[in-house]
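quick one, 306 residues, struct below
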Amino acid sequence: MNRSEVSHQPVFKPSQGIVRIAAVQYLLRAIEDWDGFESQVRFVMKAAGDYKPQFVMFPEIFTTQLLSFMDTRNLGAAVRQMDAFTQRYRDLFAELAAQWGVYIIGGSHPTMTDGKLMNTAYLFTPGKKVFTQDKIHLTRWEKEKWKGDPGHNLRVFDTPFGRIAILICYDIEFPELARKVSEMGADIIFVPSCTDDRQGFWRVRYCCHARAIENQVYVAVTGTVGNIAVEGLGLHFGQAAIITPSDFSFARDGIAAEGVLNMEQIVIADVDLAKLVSNRVNGTTIPLYDKRFDVYDNDVEVIAAG
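---
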């Protein structure tokens, strides 16, 4: 075994037990002020919290609902001005995570960090701790319209309900990212998303299934629905789902639960972490362990075949 094999071997912590995930299909509707946003968030959390999940996930950039009462004639400037709400957003979700005793993946929120505009996902714990994961790969819209900045580092988070990671929307379309966090022992990958059309939605959704199969992990995805009269936010195509590996121990089609397309809804499913442990060793295929590091470290040969 060479050094690269050793450094890439999957790292697993023993994960056992049933975990309940609630994924929110959040409806973007026009609001008049911060109070309108807070009222809707509290309503959603009450609905989700009553089912006693361990994790609740909101969609990517769902806080852009705040733009419905802001001056958006200069869209790039308006998105940066959303950072003025960052502390109120953090305080609200930290309070809700503690109130309901859950881990909240608070979607993502445009956040100014060292003068840069980041698309940042927030993880709120029941103990009122706050952690972040920046989006690594930006879409053309984020780069060209928002003039956003990409993140550079991946994180995994240890919780009493398994080791988790957050890959924001477009990031799930890059297999290397999911493989890296899976090799670090992630049990669940959360994918807050925001897609405006059907093809964008299916790009993300199909990649979620692929990542669950490739890495023998659970993948939870959700997106925004509805619309507001702001450039780029007038159309959304969204659906939440909790996705499993495709094998005998799991749902036949790899879907533990999914919502109704484009409706305000909360999708809830229980996933069994012990099944992942077994599947990684005893599954019909075991791609997380079967990866040929000796081959992947080799250069690709280019052959002139006439």
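Residues 198-215 form the longest helix (18 residues).
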